[in-house]
Write a structure and sequence with these properties.
With 312 residues, this protein is α/β, with parallel strands linked by helices. It is built from 7 helices and 11 strands.
């Protein structure tokens, strides 16, 4: 299995997996922080053979993700979100255009990049600490490896469960172990495909906060694919809205880019986020009721416990 292919998703769980010590971000103080890299896409396209010609999934994608930025990608099913992530991961090659990580053109998988898929892929016969150790770069010394694993388990609040196996922990705890494994190689670019989609609502909110705290402790460039508009607005500096080329076969894939105001962590009930949520949903074909009259009650901001997901 390719080293960079690590996952932070696990099966749904009704348990939060316990509380994390708020001071754990200091766990990586002695570890060299990753140096985030820019991710740049120049007129990238991807098409596949199809009866009668080729099916175009992505067209004319121009994007620059600055070092340390978090960019969320949303769009209807079939618009190429996961394809875009696979291209940046080097797991697929574009049919047109070029992708660069830092100053280097992408030519296959890159050791500076870690990919997190939807499934946890924790080895059931290994303890959590041994699963995390699988993400360490080749050549890591035993002492340095043990220390790095210890730091990461502390960072995600699992130091007390280091010797437990996946079947002995909750879904949220397995999720955190997989996140620690993805971070073990200190990636400079982290690609997340629906990272929290399989979790219950409460654990999902806690994992979003954990991801932001980890990003503050170990900055990296992040691209995250999600169907949850509220999640995108809470996590990201920018939200990229892709269009379906089946419905609009001549335009480029990027329908619009939304700059998210404020500094992370944001207030989930912020009115500006609620307005952007309405705009993004409208761009996805999900329209809110007409603007209320003066006598009608004003709708409240969206509840953080009820994420708004894009219909599949």
């Amino acid at each position: 299995m390719i080293e960079s292919m690590t996952s932070i998703i696990d099966a749904p769980s009704t348990s939060s997996g316990g509380h994390r010590d708020p001071g754990t971000s200091a766990a990586v103080a002695e570890h060299a922080r990753p140096r985030p890299h820019e991710v740049r896409l120049d007129t990238v396209g991807r098409s596949f053979p199809a009866p009668g010609g080729r099916q175009v999934v992505l067209r004319e994608v121009d994007l620059s993700v600055v070092p340390g930025e978090i960019v969320a990608v949303v769009g209807p099913s079939g618009c190429g979100k996961s394809t875009l992530l696979r291209l940046i991961a080097g797991l697929d090659r574009p049919s047109a255009g070029e992708i660069r990580i830092g100053d280097s053109p992408l030519r296959g998988t890159d050791p500076r990049t870690a990919v997190a898929f939807q499934e946890p892929r924790l080895l059931p016969w290994r303890t959590l600490e041994h699963n995390v150790a699988l993400g360490l770069p080749r050549g890591t010394g035993k002492r340095a490896g043990r220390e790095r694993v210890r730091e990461l388990l502390q960072l995600v609040g699992l130091e007390h469960a280091a010797t437990q196996r996946p079947r002995e922990v909750s879904g949220g705890m397995a999720q955190r172990a997989s996140l620690a494994r993805a971070l073990a190689r200190s990636p400079e670019v982290l690609l997340l495909d629906e990272p929290f989609g399989a979790l219950d609502a409460l654990t999902r909110l806690r994992m979003q906060d954990l991801l932001l705290e980890i990003h503050a402790a170990e900055p990296t460039t992040v691209l995250v694919v999600t169907h949850d508009v509220e999640e995108a607005l809470y996590l990201a500096d920018r939200v990229l809205l892709l269009r379906s080329l089946r419905e609009d076969p001549t335009s480029g894939s990027i329908a619009r880019t939304v700059e998210v105001p404020g500094v992370r962590p944001r207030d989930r009930a912020d009115r500006s986020l609620a307005d952007l949520r309405v705009e993004l949903l409208a761009g996805l074909g999900v329209h809110s009721p007409s603007t209320p009259t003066a006598s009608a009650p004003t709708p409240s901001a969206p509840s953080a416990s009820t994420p708004t997901e894009i219909p599949s």
